[in-house]
Amino acid sequence: MENEVNEPVPKFNYVSAEDYLKMERTSQQKHEYYQGEVFAMSGASLNHNDIFTNLFGHLSLKLKGKGCKPYGSDLRVHIPMNTLYTYPDISIVCGKPETTDNAFDTITNPCIIIEILSSSTKSYDRGDKFNLYRQIPTLQEYILIDSETVSVEHFVRTDVHEWRLTELKDITDAFMIKTVAIRITLESLYLDINF
């Protein structure tokens, strides 16, 4: 058909960021938002929660009174450059948290983001989500902790568009979160974890 015109398909389920936030602030369940779409987030396994508890407790203790603070997955992160609103498992902010509005429940300036991987999230967290996270100007380190096997992937920003990856797969390994000068052993991360 020579005269056929292909027009873009309209998005019937488009949600504005304002409507998303209005809905999210009254919702019992967490949702991510990206470019007009809203995605329900799933719950977490026992291993996921135990790894979170092991790490968050350690970070809270080591960072107390040092100008940097860890936050759990109830604090939303927004990336204005790509519209993403999401809930990292742990985000660390050094200095004053920059919030999107006076509700004070969404930050834009984490310097470290930590995600605890599950079978349903690991591809997204390693791929598309990391691509979106890299657009946060303040982000210096991205840490992925597997909840199904002993494995940590530690990305450190070395330049504006460059990240260095260190992989750790032995329970006797350790790594340094350089931005906050905290050493983490895999043994402490995986304490009491059963695979």
From TrEMBL:
Top-rank lineage group of the source organism: Bacteria
Domain Putative restriction endonuclease, chain residue ranges per copy: 18-175
Gene3D superfamilies to which the protein is assigned, alphabetical: tt1808, chain A
Pfam families according to UniProt: Uma2
Keywords, ordered alphabetically: Endonuclease, Hydrolase, Nuclease
Annotated GO MF terms: endonuclease activity
Full protein name: Uma2 family endonuclease
